[in-house]
């Protein structure tokens, strides 16, 4: 069984949130029939992931946690996702500058700008399709074996 699971939502990531979200994702894979000892869970070194490896392995013996190096954008599909979202958001800001500057009556400039940015950011995330995410994953996967073998990687 092979698969990719991803979610898009607004979260303030604290360690407990990271642990709970990771368990939810892994539970979903296990419920679909994938044995925990066949799962490799890839995480970066974000502060919210400080105890994640230990927590995951307590709940899922045999599950392998692969922690990325300090900064490995070519191994982290989320880098491609963020790049796409940021580019979409920048285009929306430039295209919506007039809307951003015209504050409706009864609303503060700060409230109006926050609402515009939240709406545009949500739209930017919605353009991040399953196929685009899968393409980022596949692109990164090409570098996993050389990285694990500590070979030089050419870009």
From TrEMBL:
InterPro entries: RNaseH_sf, Tc1-like_DDE_dom. Residues 13-100 form the Tc1-like transposase DDE domain. One of its GO terms (molecular function) is nucleic acid binding. Transmembrane segments: none annotated. Pfam families: DDE_3 (PF13358). This is Tc1-like transposase DDE domain-containing protein. The lineage of its organism: Eukaryota, Sar, Alveolata, Perkinsozoa, Perkinsea.
